[in-house]
Design the sequence.
């Protein structure tokens, strides 16, 4: 990953004490462009999952290198919402 965006903790979720961890699968092209995103592991809270998706899409990535060539790859973006 080049630069990870910080997920925005949804105000209502924070106020309600909702916490959780979200894993977002980010599929990259050989150039590092995002091809697809999907929830790999849900927090169980839709607002937290959506905030993690937004941050994963706002982040920048470096593709995997195999035999000195960039190849399509998948990265897991992890967002932790702990109400701290």
Sequence:
């Amino acid at each position: 990953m080049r630069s990870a965006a910080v997920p925005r903790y949804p105000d209502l979720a924070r106020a309600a004490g909702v916490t959780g961890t979200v894993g977002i699968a980010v599929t990259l092209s050989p150039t590092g462009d995002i091809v697809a995103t999907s929830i790999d592991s849900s927090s169980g809270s839709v607002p937290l999952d959506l905030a993690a998706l937004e941050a994963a899409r706002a982040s920048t990535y470096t593709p995997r290198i195999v035999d000195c060539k960039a190849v399509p790859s998948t990265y897991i973006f992890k967002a932790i919402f702990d109400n701290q």
Observations:
- The first helix runs from residue 11 to 15.
- The chain is about 20% helix and 40% strand.
